[in-house]
Amino acid sequence: MAAVQLVMFDLAGTTVDDTVSGLPLVAVVMKDAFKTHGIDIEAETVNEFRGLEKREAIRQLFVKTQGRDPSSEVVDRIFQTFKETLTTYLSSIKKEIPGTTATFKYLKSKGIKIAVGSGFPHSVVESIVKTLGWSGLLDYVSSSEKEGHGRPHPAMIDAAVRACQVRDPKGVVKVGDSKADVEEGKNAGCWTVAVLTGTQDTQTLKAANPDFVIASVMDLPSVLKNIEGKKVMNKGFRFTNEEK
């Protein structure tokens, strides 16, 4: 089994605390964007589509709530409102998921490269990275907008692999808090780690059959030790603070 050379992290819910008034940022902004266009949706419904590129999330939300496919023009209008509304909330995003920076530093100490990817617009991704002081720790910053495809397409991971000159996908670990993150990692042929710090519950995440389910990114070092120990992929190993 190849040694781990690169870890690709999601942002919101995985490494970034995106809660605004007790709700996930994406849910708040998406609710506001749809409401601006005369459609009421619930935060719980938005959470079902966490991890997707935001235009695709809008399309699927529209189908679920309206029972029909939206036109591309409708998606574009809601997406534009989403981006404008998101910008107004960015100043509220100032906290990492506890232990993220420490985990990044641990990876750097082991010579493992670090990338982040998100379904947010790329300018938002760059703003979050800068605000949290991660610019000097990351080897690659990606987004679905930058790469031209959103999850579950593996474009963001593929771009990070190329940028970091990793040759074997089994030397790559994808970490995220959504089913879409797990599917993205599987499509890239790499190890998949689901974390429980987002809005999707254990049952939803385990149904995607990740290689590991852990409480948070703080538990990632234990996962890496198991990967280095040549554990078999896609067996749904679970590590929590209580089990270590």
UniProtKB/TrEMBL annotation:
The GO annotation for biological process reads: DNA repair
A GO cellular component entry from the record: cytosol
**GO molecular function annotation:** phosphoglycolate phosphatase activity
Checking Pfam families in the record gives: HAD_2
Report which residue ranges the record marks as coiled coil. Answer: none
Alphabetized PANTHER family for the sequence: PHOSPHOGLYCOLATE PHOSPHATASE, PHOSPHONOACETALDEHYDE HYDROLASE
Origin superkingdom: Eukaryota
Query: Which SUPFAM superfamilies does UniProt cross-reference here?
Result: HAD-like
Q: What is the lineage of its organism?
A: Eukaryota, Metazoa, Cnidaria, Anthozoa, Hexacorallia
Give the Gene3D superfamilies listed for this entry: HAD superfamily/HAD-like (3.40.50.1000), Putative phosphatase, domain 2 (1.10.150.240)
**Protein's recorded name:** Phosphonoacetaldehyde hydrolase
